[in-house]
Amino acid sequence: MKIEVKNLSVNIAGKKILSNVNPVFPEGKSIAIIGPNGAGKSTLLSVLANLRSEYEGEVLADGENIRKINRKKLARRLAILPQTMQIPPDITVERLIDYGRFPYRGLFSAGDPKKDREAVERAIKIVNLEKFKDRRVNSLSGGERQRARIAMALAREPEVMLFDEPTTYLDIAFQIEVMQIIRMINEKFGMTVITVLHDINHAVQYSDEVIVVKDAKTFQGAPKDTINSEMLEKIFGVRAEIFTNEKGVSILSPVSTIKNQSS
Amino acid sequence: MIPDKFSKNPILILTVFAIVAFFGMCFSVMKGSVEIPFNEIFSAIFGSSESIHGQILNNIRLPRTIVAALVGINLSLSGTILQAVMKNPLADPHIIGISSGAGLAGISVMLLFPESAWAITPVAFLGAMAAALLIYILAWKNGIRPIRIILAGVAVSAFLGAGISSLMILNSDKVHGALMWMVGGLSARSWPHVEIILPYTIIGMILAFIGAKYLNVLMLGDETAKSLGLNVEAVRLIFTALAALLAASAVSVVGLLGFVGLIVPHATRLIIGTDHRYLLPGAALAGIATVTVSDTFARIAFSPVELPVGIVMAAAGAPFFLFLLRKEL
Prior knowledge:
The complex is a heterodimer.
Chain A: E1 3-12, E2 15-21, E3 24-25, E4 30-34, H1 41-48, E5 56-61, E6 64-65, H2 71-77, E7 78-81, H3 93-99, H4 113-126, H5 142-154, E8 160-164, H6 172-189, E9 192-196, H7 200-206, E10 209-214, E11 217-221, H8 223-226, H9 229-236, E12 238-244, E13 250-257
Parallel strand pairs in A: 4-9, 4-10, 7-8, 8-9
Antiparallel strand pairs in A: 1-2, 1-3, 1-5, 5-6, 10-11, 12-13
Chain B: H1 10-30, H2 38-46, H3 52-85, H4 98-112, H5 120-139, H6 146-170, H7 175-183, H8 191-218, H9 222-227, H10 232-254, H11 260-272, H12 276-300, H13 309-328
Helix pairs in contact in B: 1-3, 1-12, 2-3, 3-8, 3-10, 3-11, 3-12, 4-5, 4-6, 4-10, 5-6, 5-10, 8-10, 8-12, 11-12, 12-13
């Protein structure tokens, strides 16, 4: 599914969060959205996911305005992993993931139980939670819980997946695990993956395209073209050293903040 | 603690609940100033009702027990739905003021237009709905927080209570019935009352059971529910209306009976879990048992004086409310 954003503007409480932006989301790629806190990354993502209706401009999915697409039909093709989710204490991993099949079920019809079961099983396998499927979600570690939530989105078998800071609150090992799953979803299943990221190193390592949000505007490019010391100074207000490891991946190491930023 | 792989069998639990509800009703039918043995219940219902036991049973005990059961169902479903929709463990039609809305509206009809008794339930429903919306609007400030719903409910309840009291003082000649109604009682409830409440119970149960899966998704949070394609606002509005209708129909028959909608859903959730497909029928069955048994105690505890069941429910419910307050907020 091809996602296009045209002349998007968002105001929240009188403040301009995004002003007439036209980010491009190449199909089948892993796209990272980065930017300072409060720059509007999550806002952009919530517009894409049709979670927010107060905006100007339009979002097109394969040329069709997402406001006009039936909610459940859109939910089958586009899944978002919100930053927080309330999980009732007695819900098991398998049942949580099964909720991902909700968009396929009607008011009176149970959908296709066989297909549902297969999709749930596939999702469980992808995130490697077979052993945990009867465990209660709230008894899992942070990383396992995040994998269960990813599997819930995967069970929808979407074409596009959106992640809102998927590594926040996780230990470093779990962060890598989650980022690798996201990369795999993109590479192995060809899904377009759009991820709001906090850690710029993750954006460098795991994405094909980076969209930078700053002062209500966006610009974008390949990681190697967008992420450099000039950008880090201007956008994030940090001075950083950038190394290249033996695999040719850039690694940044922030050194100091720059005082008296213009913004 | 609940073990991880809690091998709960919801169907089995519901069966046990159904048996308990059945015996609750039998208990209610048997006990009173005249004891009716268990083995006579069915012969009296289905056989000739010429005997004294048959008369008592068919004209007094049975309709009252059925009203108690239906009220139990309605208030329990209403509370279960409100707790899910408002994401608030303390939501209960009585506590958050929906019952007061129904009460003020109903009592207005009762005292001001006594000849239009048929209008009590629909008007009480409008009152309940108005109160629900008012509470919702008052509690809204960048989203809904549990504590604000409770506080807004207390305020709305107090305000509507002032209206109810004024009406009663201004119409003090007709007040006795209204006074009993304020506490919530089943005294002298009979077949006409069954007819008033039964249609709402049936509608309520059907809609609640169809909608169970939507409540389940709503439990995951608004963002997740929306992203799964659920029209969160519509679901919330429809279910709030349903909860108001259920509460209003109960209120218009037995008055302001509190705490059923609070205690029953919670106790049921502890046993059955949070899946509304089982929680709702479980709460309905537990509601039957709770109200029928409480009413029987209210009848026989200080016999020959009969207490309104509302007093029994409040005596049991208030401590439970405090327990929840400490545990969950």
